[in-house]
Amino acid sequence: NCLFRALNKMNFITRLSALCLRKSKMQQRHQSSRRPAVPLGSRILTDPSKVFEHNMWDHMQWSQEEEENAKERAAENSLVKVQWEDQEILPEKKREELKTEQRSSGHTKRNCTNSFSHKNEMFEEGEKYWKKNCGGGSTSVQGYADNKNQIKSLTDNAQGKNCGEELSRLESFPGSDATYRILEVGCGAGNSVFPILKVLCNTPGTFLYCCDFASGAVELVKSHSSYNSAWCSAFVHDVCDDALPYPFPDEILDVVLLVFVLSTIHPDRMQGVVNRLAKLLKPGGMLLFRDYGRYDTAQLRFKKGHCLSENFYVRGDGTRVYFFTKDEVSNMFNLAGLTEVQNLVDKRLQVNRKKKVKMQRVWIQSKFQKPLLLSLNKPEETTGRHPYR
């Protein structure tokens, strides 16, 4: 029974990843509204004379000449750097205003006992679920143990009202009664949120969190007719600020979606962001990553004077973008304690058939998993206990 449920969960992750990694950036392929004749990922260009018959060709192999040309163009547009004083990603005043606003909002939620419709105690429910489906005995997922220890610590050191508020926050939060939880970081206006919700509304026990730095984008998501707080919680969050709490405890997420988000963050802050997101995953949880790859057409199109630092640029609208290599991505997530499941360079040829223009697109697509924590005892030495803690 446990194996059957585990296989079902992995199938769900696979289907969800295929759905979610086609985010807004991927929707800008200028494809016709007609369904493609072949599935995405299997359109291979075998006859160069037919290159303008479709809008996108998959699994493109670059020639050595194309590789060298791309490197030269990137080196050329990086010669002139933006002055250091002009590289402020967000004015400090604005960042402080955002932090104050979010902390105030979080305080209000903690003190409003009827804020959320789901009030079951997550830790007890989680342990019941684990025992029922995996024969967990007295052992449970480490995340539940850690959170129960947090509660015990708070109880042992009770100091009146503040302790009570923190205890309430840990036990009651949006999606607290769910058994499968997903977080999309950088949800924007919801291009991925609503396709995911379409799946979740037919899958009992699931819940979606989605956040964005822009409060306007979050409001668009929450005002959408398909938004339902029974399955989803949208909130404003600055992932670069480690001091800002998430509206749920650590180690409860099964999936984190990080799609075309990390590239917008300053390289010096990327590792901290990844480390924090890794803490949100429960053991066995999966982080799905997709972002710009090195020498993508978007990088080669930049003019001189738009380069902030190596492979990091500023667009005309002030937004930033970094272009990754596969090794950089692997190192970053490994340092966060995650194990590589998939990490590949997705090279495609995008075609503007009207203008007869060809564009080499490069993306990095990866899956990283939080390791399951093994029990100190070997499985055969345990009695009625699951081998994982």
UniProtKB/TrEMBL annotation:
Residues 91-116 are annotated as: Disordered. One of its GO terms (biological process) is methylation. Residues 91-104 have a biased composition (Basic and acidic residues). Residues 183-287 form the Methyltransferase type domain. The keyword Methyltransferase applies. Gene3D superfamilies: Vaccinia Virus protein VP39. This is METL2 protein.
